Amino acid sequence: MRITAQQQWPNRFAAWAAVSFCTGFALAVVAQDLFLQRLQDDSIRIAAPRTHFLAGRALDRIRDGNTVHFDFQVSLASGHQQNVVHRIVERFSVSYDLWEERFSVSRLRLPRKGVSHLSTLEAETWCLNNLALFAPREVRDKPMWVKLEIRAEDPMQRGPLFSEPGVNLSSLIELFSRPASKNQASWTLESGPLQWGEIRPGT
Amino acid sequence: MLLKLLTIALIASSLAVSRNADPADNVNSRYTVESVELLGVPKTKLSRTVRERLDKMIGTKYDTLALTGLVWKIREEVRAKHINVRVGRGLKPEHLAVRLEVEGKRDKSFDVTAPKFGYNSRQGFSGGLEGVINAGSRLRIAGGYSNDSDNLLERYEGFHGRTEFRLSSTAALKFHYASLRQSWNPAVQSASLYGNREIFEPTASIQLTRGLEWDAGVSIQRLDPANTNKAARTEASNAVVNTLRYRRRLEGTGTHHQELEAGYGLRAATQILSSDYSYHRHSLHGAYTLQSGRHELRIAALAGLLRGNAPLFDTFLLGNASTLRGYNKFDIAPRGASRIAHGSVDYRYRLFQVFCDTGALAERGGGMTEVLYSFGVGLRKDNMQLAVAFPLRNARMDPVFLVGVNF
Fold this sequence. Notes:
The complex is a heterodimer.
Chain A: H1 5-31, E1 35-38, E2 43-47, H2 56-63, E3 68-78, E4 84-96, E5 103-107, E6 113-118, H3 120-129, E7 133-134, E8 144-152, H4 169-177, E9 186-194, E10 200-201
Parallel strand pairs in A: 1-10
Antiparallel strand pairs in A: 1-2, 2-7, 3-4, 3-8, 4-5, 5-6, 8-9
Chain B: H1 2-16, E1 32-39, H2 48-57, H3 64-78, E2 80-89, E3 95-105, E4 110-113, E5 117-120, E6 124-135, E7 139-148, E8 155-166, E9 171-183, E10 194-209, E11 212-225, E12 235-251, E13 256-269, E14 278-292, E15 295-309, H4 329-332, E16 337-349, E17 352-363, E18 372-381, E19 384-392, E20 400-405
Parallel strand pairs in B: 1-3
Antiparallel strand pairs in B: 2-3, 4-6, 5-6, 5-20, 6-7, 7-8, 8-9, 9-10, 10-11, 11-12, 12-13, 13-14, 14-15, 15-16, 16-17, 17-18, 18-19, 19-20
């Protein structure tokens, strides 16, 4: 028995509807994983307690004595989701003390900043706490969206390029403009739309 | 306005981005490298510069930048797909053991090599081809064909296969199989000649300490009688095998290097293992190499003792491409010997080489031969050599030509 295109259509539609629903549901769940906190200096602190980027292969590499770089991008959109008004990009290097069994994290910005003797959770939190997102006054009366993207360094791509000085912000932005490679662990978390007043004040 | 804000934010951030990697990024940079191990590819496949750089890391602080650069250099040289860097605690406090695991060849996980190929003007050609498959960093499978008249009393030809599975950085399981057909020189007069020989050898290999490796296992060999000896039956030579190997490269200043090699082998065949032969074979060898710039001096010694009734392949011999070069093994002890003592001194300057060998044997059931000497000159580049060797006996000089790779 041959199945005609018309007969196939309802099944396809149902399948697409199911996929769309599941994707939307998954995104909604993921979106809830990004929590924002408004600090006294009007900066926004980001927390993602349910997202653990120190995990999987990246964590294995760190525990094997390697330094693994994690790239972070936080973007703030105002008015509509595509209107990005502020963006920060940061790279952190994470290593693991093989004798003391504690993590060490460095932020690769001037002035350089680093901390050691951290647990996995403390290391993750330290990275997020060092992403200072400022919301300009002009955008505070409009709906806002905040998006956090994290990428573990691709072990297959890393080479001497990354050992040289001068890998600048444009390289990092270009990195985020491309989709993550199949060897690269990545996370995307979103929050919004929300009003400035809805962001919970913190200390 | 918003665009202006975004631009300012980007510029401010770009000015603030600093170097991307720093040795201090890794908290382990305060620890000292105790050992560097390369897995998945023999160290000999690397260039001398890279080998030296690897060796020089030992004793220095762990430097991720230097290591990353070196890993990429190795990756290029061995055409590896990926190299896993695994660093763990060393044996000493605050020391690290670095392990580089070469994963898969980028363009080939299959390689063909000629483990040995050479010509001896008295004993003819010897050679072989071997294909090696590296299945990841843990499994290595090799198989090939060899036809060798140099190593043993007999000329043997046939196929062999071997597998090696690495359980960890210090332990491996090995299995060797060979099916060989023997042909004998008329000078070898013995009632125990065999025609075909089949070998099964499962062993375990453990690295006891840095440079010291111990192999233990069993060797099961089936010997079919030679065509000339139709009344004989198939025999078994089953033995417990133990090998201790030590190799240490000592770095000096500048271009001075020293290398020490030593090994002890024991084969104990017993009727408990359903062996038709019962014997103990002990062999001990050592070599010291001193390299200074383009000069290289190598002093090597070998000693062995055989007790009991051993098949011919386990007897000792002198007069091949590595011992008493210049002699014909069939002129010294055509049925093999039960005791051996041998020493050699090699000197090389660039491609040029001279060598001097000395040794003596005790034939089975006979006394010790006189101490024999030989010397030779030639050219050598890495594993390739072209030499002419002269036995010093009865004031006669019958030169022997040696040409080959790993010969």
